[in-house]
UniProtKB/TrEMBL annotation:
This is Hydrolase. Keywords: Hydrolase, Magnesium. It comes from Streptomyces graminearus. It holds the Pfam family Hydrolase. InterPro entries: HAD-like_hydrolase (IPR051400), HAD-like_sf (IPR036412), HAD-SF_hydro_IA (IPR006439), HAD_sf (IPR023214).
Length: 145
């Protein structure tokens, strides 16, 4: 099935059955470039959706790009954690769109104040499970009973 609006849905356009976690790629590139990269890495089939700015007509950090990813996964923004490597384009953009925003700080970008939005900062993906487990939206028990 050809990508529709820059969205590649897994299994020939069929939605996956719900599971513990859904995964998508949101890129400011094109679907052709991203599918080639993901296929070369053997990762293409690990994502329920691949969304790219060239086909979507909107790019990060604009909220519409992040909201399109949420829609492709069938989730509300507050149910989605977005992990990216750029503090402004990924971190601030995702937070302003209402997603849990996680910036992987590999020391290549200067630290920036996110202002009035919350951007969680991790040094690597190995820190992500603990961060998600600490948030009630992603499985942490509520302190309110």
């Amino acid at each position: 099935m050809a990508p529709r609006y820059g969205i590649r849905m897994a299994r020939n356009g069929e939605r996956f059955m719900p599971r513990a976690a859904l995964h998508a790629v949101l890129s400011n590139s094109s679907i052709t470039v991203q599918e080639h990269r993901l296929r070369a890495l053997g990762l293409l089939d690990r994502f329920e959706a691949v969304l790219c700015a060239a086909e979507l007509g909107v790019s990060k950090p604009r909220p519409g790009a992040f909201l399109a990813a949420c829609e492709a996964l069938g989730l509300a923004p507050h149910e989605v954690a977005y992990v990216g490597d750029h503090p402004e384009i990924d971190g601030r953009g995702a937070a302003e769109a209402g997603l849990l925003s996680v910036w992987i700080d590999r020391g290549t970008s200067p630290a920036r104040d996110a202002g009035d939005v919350v951007v969680h900062r991790i040094a690597g993906l190995s820190e992500l499970p603990a961060l998600l487990r600490s948030d009630t939206r992603f499985g942490a028990p509520s302190t309110f009973g």
